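Quick one, T. Sequence first:
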Amino acid sequence: MPGNAGTSVVNSLVSSPLPLLIEKLGLAVASAQSALDKNSIAVAQEMATTSVNIGGEEYNLISLGFAPTFYAFTEATVEAKLEFSVAESEEFSIGAEVGVNAGIVAVSVSASYARKFEMSAEGSSSIAARLVSLPAPERLSELLKEIADEQ
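C-alpha coordinates:
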Protein backbone atom coordinates (compact mmCIF):
# COMPACT_ATOMS: atom_id res chain seq x y z
CA MET A 1 0.00 0.00 0.00
CA PRO A 2 2.67 2.61 0.80
CA GLY A 3 4.23 1.99 -2.59
CA ASN A 4 0.94 2.90 -4.26
CA ALA A 5 0.61 6.12 -2.24
CA GLY A 6 4.19 7.13 -3.04
CA THR A 7 3.62 6.38 -6.72
CA SER A 8 0.48 8.51 -6.65
CA VAL A 9 2.38 11.52 -5.27
CA VAL A 10 5.16 11.08 -7.84
CA ASN A 11 2.58 10.83 -10.65
CA SER A 12 0.95 14.04 -9.41
CA LEU A 13 4.29 15.81 -9.60
CA VAL A 14 5.03 14.55 -13.10
CA SER A 15 1.60 15.48 -14.43
CA SER A 16 1.50 18.91 -12.77
CA PRO A 17 0.80 21.79 -15.16
CA LEU A 18 4.26 23.36 -14.85
CA PRO A 19 4.40 24.49 -18.52
CA LEU A 20 0.99 26.13 -18.07
CA LEU A 21 2.17 27.84 -14.88
CA ILE A 22 5.25 29.21 -16.66
CA GLU A 23 3.12 30.39 -19.59
CA LYS A 24 0.71 32.19 -17.25
CA LEU A 25 3.63 33.85 -15.44
CA GLY A 26 5.07 35.05 -18.76
CA LEU A 27 1.74 36.48 -19.88
CA ALA A 28 1.22 38.16 -16.51
CA VAL A 29 4.66 39.79 -16.66
CA ALA A 30 4.04 41.00 -20.24
CA SER A 31 0.65 42.45 -19.25
CA ALA A 32 2.08 44.12 -16.16
CA GLN A 33 4.99 45.55 -18.18
CA SER A 34 2.56 47.02 -20.70
CA ALA A 35 0.53 48.64 -17.91
CA LEU A 36 3.70 50.08 -16.35
CA ASP A 37 4.80 51.54 -19.70
CA LYS A 38 1.37 53.10 -20.34
CA ASN A 39 1.44 54.64 -16.86
CA SER A 40 4.91 56.13 -17.41
CA ILE A 41 3.79 57.64 -20.74
CA ALA A 42 0.72 59.15 -19.05
CA VAL A 43 2.99 60.67 -16.38
CA ALA A 44 5.22 62.11 -19.11
CA GLN A 45 2.21 63.70 -20.82
CA GLU A 46 1.05 65.16 -17.52
CA MET A 47 4.53 66.57 -16.82
CA ALA A 48 4.59 68.16 -20.26
CA THR A 49 1.28 69.92 -19.66
CA THR A 50 1.80 70.91 -16.02
CA SER A 51 3.02 74.51 -15.81
CA VAL A 52 4.95 76.17 -13.04
CA ASN A 53 5.39 79.92 -12.74
CA ILE A 54 8.97 80.89 -11.91
CA GLY A 55 10.02 84.54 -11.99
CA GLY A 56 6.94 85.50 -13.98
CA GLU A 57 7.56 82.91 -16.69
CA GLU A 58 5.73 79.63 -17.28
CA TYR A 59 7.68 76.38 -17.49
CA ASN A 60 6.43 72.85 -17.79
CA LEU A 61 7.98 70.15 -15.64
CA ILE A 62 9.81 68.50 -18.56
CA SER A 63 11.57 71.76 -19.46
CA LEU A 64 12.69 72.02 -15.83
CA GLY A 65 14.38 68.63 -16.06
CA PHE A 66 11.74 66.39 -14.54
CA ALA A 67 11.33 63.05 -16.27
CA PRO A 68 8.92 60.17 -15.80
CA THR A 69 10.25 56.99 -14.28
CA PHE A 70 9.96 53.79 -16.27
CA TYR A 71 10.04 50.37 -14.65
CA ALA A 72 11.12 47.02 -16.05
CA PHE A 73 10.89 43.47 -14.79
CA THR A 74 14.37 42.03 -14.45
CA GLU A 75 13.29 38.59 -13.36
CA ALA A 76 10.26 36.52 -12.48
CA THR A 77 10.49 33.22 -10.63
CA VAL A 78 8.07 30.38 -10.06
CA GLU A 79 9.04 28.09 -7.23
CA ALA A 80 7.22 24.92 -6.25
CA LYS A 81 8.23 22.63 -3.41
CA LEU A 82 6.75 19.29 -2.50
CA GLU A 83 7.78 17.09 0.36
CA PHE A 84 6.34 13.71 1.08
CA SER A 85 7.12 10.73 3.27
CA VAL A 86 5.80 7.21 3.54
CA ALA A 87 6.24 5.05 6.65
CA GLU A 88 5.25 1.50 7.48
CA SER A 89 5.43 -0.10 10.91
CA GLU A 90 4.53 -3.47 12.35
CA GLU A 91 3.85 -4.37 15.96
CA PHE A 92 3.41 -7.83 17.37
CA SER A 93 3.01 -8.67 21.03
CA ILE A 94 2.17 -11.76 23.05
CA GLY A 95 1.04 -11.81 26.62
CA ALA A 96 0.31 -14.79 28.86
CA GLU A 97 -1.05 -15.35 32.34
CA VAL A 98 -0.91 -18.51 34.37
CA GLY A 99 -3.13 -18.99 37.37
CA VAL A 100 -3.37 -21.92 39.80
CA ASN A 101 -6.50 -22.30 41.91
CA ALA A 102 -7.10 -25.41 43.98
CA GLY A 103 -5.49 -27.81 41.59
CA ILE A 104 -6.88 -26.17 38.43
CA VAL A 105 -4.41 -24.53 36.13
CA ALA A 106 -5.67 -21.77 33.88
CA VAL A 107 -3.66 -20.24 31.12
CA SER A 108 -4.74 -17.23 29.08
CA VAL A 109 -2.83 -16.05 26.07
CA SER A 110 -3.37 -12.82 24.22
CA ALA A 111 -1.74 -11.83 21.00
CA SER A 112 -2.01 -8.67 19.00
CA TYR A 113 -0.72 -7.69 15.61
CA ALA A 114 -0.88 -4.24 14.06
CA ARG A 115 0.42 -2.99 10.76
CA LYS A 116 0.30 0.75 10.18
CA PHE A 117 0.86 2.81 7.08
CA GLU A 118 1.42 6.54 7.19
CA MET A 119 1.80 9.00 4.38
CA SER A 120 2.15 12.74 4.57
CA ALA A 121 2.58 15.27 1.81
CA GLU A 122 3.18 18.98 2.05
CA GLY A 123 3.47 21.47 -0.75
CA SER A 124 4.06 25.15 -1.22
CA SER A 125 4.59 27.48 -4.12
CA SER A 126 5.53 31.08 -4.63
CA ILE A 127 5.86 33.56 -7.44
CA ALA A 128 8.30 36.45 -7.17
CA ALA A 129 9.10 39.32 -9.50
CA ARG A 130 11.77 41.99 -9.35
CA LEU A 131 11.27 45.50 -10.74
CA VAL A 132 13.90 48.15 -11.38
CA SER A 133 13.41 51.78 -12.30
CA LEU A 134 14.88 53.03 -15.55
CA PRO A 135 15.29 56.52 -16.95
CA ALA A 136 12.90 57.54 -19.69
CA PRO A 137 14.03 56.46 -23.15
CA GLU A 138 16.41 59.07 -24.52
CA ARG A 139 14.36 59.75 -27.66
CA LEU A 140 11.19 60.24 -25.61
CA SER A 141 12.98 62.71 -23.34
CA GLU A 142 14.27 64.65 -26.35
CA LEU A 143 10.84 64.70 -27.99
CA LEU A 144 9.13 65.88 -24.80
CA LYS A 145 11.68 68.67 -24.43
CA GLU A 146 11.14 69.75 -28.05
CA ILE A 147 7.38 69.85 -27.54
CA ALA A 148 7.78 71.73 -24.25
CA ASP A 149 10.07 74.29 -25.86
CA GLU A 150 7.57 74.88 -28.69
CA GLN A 151 4.82 75.63 -26.21
